[in-house]
From TrEMBL:
GO MF annotation terms: ATP binding; ATP hydrolysis activity
Keyword ATP-binding among record annotations: yes
SMART domains documented for this protein: AAA (SM00382)
Family classification: Belongs to the ABC transporter superfamily.
UniProt xrefs under CDD domains: ABC_Iron-Siderophores_B12_Hemin (cd03214)
Species of the source: Pleionea litopenaei
UniProt keyword Transport, yes or no: yes
Pfam families: ABC_tran
Annotated Gene3D superfamilies: P-loop containing nucleotide triphosphate hydrolases (3.40.50.300)
PANTHER family (UniProt xref): ABC TRANSPORTER ATP-BINDING PROTEIN, HEMIN IMPORT ATP-BINDING PROTEIN HMUV
Alphabetical list of InterPro entries matching this protein: AAA+_ATPase, ABC_transporter-like_ATP-bd, ABC_transporter-like_CS, P-loop_NTPase
Residue stretches making up the ABC transporter domain: 8-240
Name the UniProt record assigns to this protein: ABC transporter ATP-binding protein
Domain of life, source organism: Bacteria
Length: 262
């Protein structure tokens, strides 16, 4: 897809571990402000692609540019000022309160000797409210439930004030209300969001553009209406479905045939 102001541009990006090609010749550009969903079956390469985008791993072939400059040329701090990441499994944060963990999002914008200001505190408290954790600020992070931890990590990303938000299965641990709240919140930030997501109905509701991966390759990339069709779902997931328009939003509704896949 041609985009006007590319944030990421990948050309022939591949990532190989030993003799296994995990990402295979991916080319795409993602524009400023796009809300892009990465979809595909288990092992398709969604997390690996996200890892390339936040430079946890380095492509073994091809090029990857961030804001028109090779991603490899950014310092760790420069990247952290622009890109926030919410991972599937929140890290262990021994002895830290929820407030402390969320306040870590301030770090990329601070010098070594900068102290937290009252504005900083306000930002942390506001983000905490946005994810519905305002009564948990002083609680030990490790004692939160899985879903609460996930929401705290999203608050930390908001505090970071990034230009790009990368999220790997952010709705995994969340009940339906909090799934919706998190995705609405991500959309309301009006920044570039790239999110891997298994729930195809949520992908259809929230993403504008979808990249469908299978076996490390891009099978389809484009408007959600083109990508989420019965044929692609059958080809890639091996499940038959009926796709029609959703009664509550402009995306599709996918109804799966729940019979055992043949
Ligand atoms: N460091 C690694 N070494 C070897 N194989 C790896 C490594 N990282 C990922 N893989 C393999 O690459 C493939 C893609 O993994 P990845 O986690 O990117 O898939 P995914 O689409 O995010 O899957 P899921 O939906 O299950 O989270 C998998 O087969 C995985 O086992």
């Amino acid at each position: 897809m041609a985009v006007e102001h590319p944030v990421y541009t990948a050309q022939h990006l591949s990532w190989q571990v030993q003799d296994k090609l995990i990402l295979n010749d991916l080319s795409f550009a993602i524009g400023q402000g796009e809300f892009v969903g990465l979809i595909g079956p288990n092992g398709a390469g969604k997390s690996s692609l996200l890892r390339c985008l936040y430079r946890k791993i380095t492509p073994t072939r091809g090029t990857l540019a961030f804001q028109q400059k090779s991603l490899a040329e950014y310092s760790r701090q420069q990247l952290a000022q622009k890109v926030a990441v919410v991972l599937q499994e929140p890290p262990n944060q021994f002895e830290l309160t929820v407030f402390d963990v969320i306040a870590m999002g301030l770090t990329p914008h601070k010098g070594l000797l900068d102290f937290d200001t009252s504005d900083d505190r306000d930002r942390v408290v506001k983000a905490c409210k946005q994810v519905d954790l305002n009564d948990k600020l002083e609680q030990n992070f490790n004692s939160l439930s899985g879903g609460e931890k996930q929401r705290a990590m999203i608050a930390r990303a908001i505090v970071q004030q990034p230009q790009v938000l990368l999220m790997d299965e952010p709705t995994n641990h969340l009940d339906i209300r909090h799934q919706l709240e998190v995705l609405h919140l991500a959309r309301s930030l009006k920044i570039t969001v790239i999110v891997s997501i298994h729930d195809l109905n949520l992908a259809a509701a929230f993403c504008d553009r979808l990249i469908l991966l299978d076996h490390g390759r891009i099978v389809a990339d484009g408007d959600k209406q083109q990508v989420l069709c019965e044929k692609h779902i059958a080809d890639v997931f091996g499940v038959s479905s009926a796709v029609d328009s959703h009664p509550f939003h402009d995306g599709q509704r996918i109804t799966f045939n729940l019979a055992k896949p043949s």
